[in-house]
Amino acid sequence: MTANTPTPVTVLGTGAMGSALARAWLAAGHPVTVWNRTPARTEALAAGGAAVAGSAAEAVAAGRLVIVCLLDDSSVGEALEHASLSGRDVVNLTTGTPAQGRARAVWAEARGARFLDAGIMAVPPMIADPSSGAYVFYSGSAELFREHRDTLAVPAGATFVGTDPGFAALHDVALLSAMSGMFAGVFHAFALVRREDIAPREFAPLLQGWLTAMAGLVHRTADQLESGDYAKDVVSNAAMQAAGNATLLRTAQEQGVSPELLTPYMALMDRLVAEGRGAQDTTGMIDLLAGRPAAS
Ligand code: NDP
Hints:
Helix content is 49%, strand content 12%. It contains twelve helices and eight strands.
């Protein structure tokens, strides 16, 4: 089966994301059945050729491949309470935790369905735009993923990260968490220059260039985590960085900027140095966070 083979797709939930997904399948020529708790939100899709089901159960009955894109995990349970999932391939694109993904897999399989959990690395305008870099993490039934891979790849790239149904959410949340840290730094940086005669639009490219240059260091961190050696070829050791933090904090004070987004990160670095690991790379902070014994 290819992306061009029309495959019936049911989409439960036509909020901002569910609608973008449904539009992508419609545009690719797949027969789409939609259901939404508030029927008015299906009208634009109906005008675009989607069939509208009167209930979630009716939508699930319309075809084998059932895409669920609701607000949260409890809405998934509520919406599908009275649907017969036997013989269905349920793909849950609702954001949740790894434990929710695993529990939802057990729940779906007990009802006779195959199950994939998913984490969407995109916002709705990126859907169905191959140049946007949008993709979705999937985990759970490898057979389901293999059989529906081409259809799943219509709205955004499809990346399978394992048969553990919790892994899609784990990858999703790990990347989102990294983004939170990145924006914490970005916001602090903009705050530092905010009161000066420095145009944010001129500062932004400098910020982007620096973050892009630094981003590659994640591979070095990964290598160290895999080797367990945090002391080899160290160029910016933890003690030096911890000392440098004093300059960052003092500059924040001079500029009248709250250091609240930076101080937890710095406190963890101080802990690493206090444990006598100042000569190593800061990779040991990951073990402190994860509550794992120190590597080297
Ligand atoms: P919206 O708020 O636009 O839509 C939420 C959807 O969930 C609506 O269809 C809503 O129905 C439905 N819903 C909420 N509660 C219930 C319930 N108890 N029973 C049945 N249906 C319910 O959110 P999005 O479409 O943007 O998000 C959907 C999922 O996609 C979320 O899990 C979100 O985290 C994820 N996502 C969204 C992204 C985004 O940028 N928008 C990015 C990545 C992931 P109703 O219309 O009746 O309220």
